[in-house]
Description:
Blueprint: E1 9-14, H1 18-29, E2 34-40, H2 43-52, E3 57-61, H3 69-74, E4 81-86, E5 100-105, H4 110-135, E6 138-143, E7 146-151, E8 155-161, E9 164-169, E10 173-177, H5 180-186, E11 192-196, E12 199-202, E13 208-209, E14 213-216, E15 219-222
Parallel strand pairs: 1-2, 1-3, 3-4, 4-5
Antiparallel strand pairs: 6-7, 8-9, 8-12, 9-10, 11-12, 13-14, 14-15
Amino acid sequence: MxxxxxxxxxxxxxxxxxxxxxxxETFISRDPELHLVGKCADAVYASNLLNIHEVDLIFxxxxxxxxKGFEFLRTLKNPPLVxxxxxxxxxxxxxxxxxxxxxxxxxIPYDRFVTSIGKFxxxxxxxDALLEMAERDYIFIxxxxxxxxIILQDVFYIESLREYINIHTKTETFTFKMPISxxxxxxxxxxxxxxxxxxxxxxxxxxxxxxxxxxxKGKKLPIGRTYKxxxxx
Length: 233
């Protein structure tokens, strides 16, 4: 039986206080998914590390010698995600336009570090999931203890029935317990569109379209007033 390879996230520490850097290094070493590829005390060396390594996460002290933390970030074209470490809480607002995952106030408690890493992993997983969805022509949906594979090309339309959805495909109808908004997030808007609070349709499967309904598989589905602007295809 093959086990999935555990994820590894490359991170660097940019911190000019040796004790603070050491504490972060110890915390990082406790998480098997984090891999420390380098630590440094200034922005110049940090730029070099970013050129050498694929970095997913920077632990960044704001009070660096010469170039300050946010100035350094603004020089980067595609910055990795960032967890800011600082002894001063008043700087949080400054980084609002940057990819800041969290602010850790020194001295950093371990449980607070763990919370930050949780936020970081959530963002990375969400990004991975979106990329996977975009590249795939199918999705898996949990049904009890098993996962059901839905081929997107086979889907005609999805209808919502209270807390359930019915996915009508070429061959059968699948029923799952989930809100329609949740599956909507997983579908490409190039292929699917919401036409009503209760219906999502496959754009390519429309047989007839009028101002008030679309017809798919011989069935007339109503167009909700608020959805009209989105289906002028």
